[in-house]
Amino acid sequence: MKTTIAEVKNYVGQEVTIGAWLANKRSSGKIAFLQLRDGSGFIQGVVVKAEVSEEVFKLAKSITQESSLYVTGIVREDSRSPFGYELGVTNIELIHEAHDYPITPKEHGTEFLMDHRHLWLRSKKQHANMKIRNEIIRATYEFFNKQGFIKIDPPILTSSAPEGTTELFHTKYFDEDAFLSQSGQLYMEAAAMAFGKVFSFGPTFRAEKSKTRRHLIEFWMIEPEMAFTSHEESLEIQEQYVSYIVQSVLENCALELKTLGRDISKLENVKPPFPRITYDEAIKFLQEQGFEDIKWGDDFGAPHETAIANSFDKPVFIVNYPKDIKPFYMQPHPERDDVVLCADLIAPEGYGEIIGGSERIHDYELMKSALEKHNLSLDAYGWYLDLCKYGAVPHSGFGLGLERTVAWITGTEHVRETIPFPRLLNRLWP
């Protein structure tokens, strides 16, 4: 019976064959222990000299790291294994023998590992990171589908900048200028006016010359937009969504979290409601904590966000930022003309902002004046202005950065390990 490591639990006591790679091995006299992986998981194969042919045992002792094999054996439960099962090997068929695999079971520098990212992905911790990333994506689709959202795919090549910044990658679109998308938001707002509740999931690009552990040049975002939805209602959706993906990982990726050494007690508490503080309160708090240089009107950096997050045991919303430090499209606060209806969701444990969201302007004249104030072309944004011109409604939305969220949930220090092939300031290879 041919199967995968993930499915061996269904064949206890039976003989199965698994296509696998040798991750590691050790042997002592008349027994060899093979650490096998097949992409779906890791399992130990035990080869006992007295139970196999001389040829098979000799092969088991000589197989090199990352050689590919067909391994046949009896599945048995093993309480000592984190996986819970092992394979009593009866036969091995060598497919391809690997030589001088560069990533050996020892410490390697980060740059070396990043240069060999195409191979580093095979390791247990990187495998766990990617499995959890996949679970977050799966749970994302499940959550929004259950909530009645429609998936819409915004373009990656655009003619303008949603955030109104200069941190864009420029390219030529035949004889026109074009840019790689830094957000699909404006297009998602248009889609929300057609379908009510929509979400996108795709790559975004920021030409930001940052080297921090929180930043990537290319990253993936989940961007929902909701018609007839207030800022307050959007916050409730955000905390429900984040809680949903965290609980899904806890339920479906327990082994991967254990592999990463994640303290799951910090995740088990991630359930609605999340605490909320205003920007004003955040400034006052930081000043009291000794951040003497921070003043009203400043944006928060990583140390500020970490100090705020450390005061709570759940993600925390910071609401109502000054309008002068936020993008043009945010709805002004009904009672104050200096702040907007927005929020950033700050993850615990120093992982920073994972969501940015707001209620969007839906008044035509207000949107027009906001575009003019930010020196944005009314011609280029004419289609976006149309949303305020034809059946405008109050609407809200947000964007969640996938890699930062994976980093937080997995407890991974740097976002470069939360995406298969990271694009960093000085890395475009492999």
UniProtKB/TrEMBL annotation:
One of its GO terms (molecular function) is asparagine-tRNA ligase activity. Residues 130-420 form the Aminoacyl-transfer RNA synthetases class-II family profile domain. Coiled coil: none annotated. It catalyses: tRNA(Asn) + L-asparagine + ATP = L-asparaginyl-tRNA(Asn) + AMP + diphosphate + H(+). It is an enzyme of class 6 (ligase). Keywords: Aminoacyl-tRNA synthetase, ATP-binding, Cytoplasm, Ligase, Nucleotide-binding, Protein biosynthesis. It is found in: Cytoplasm. Signal peptide: none annotated. It comes from the Bacteria. The keyword Ubl conjugation does not apply. Homodimer. HAMAP family: Asn_tRNA_synth. Belongs to the class-II aminoacyl-tRNA synthetase family. This is Asparagine--tRNA ligase. It comes from Pallidibacillus thermolactis.
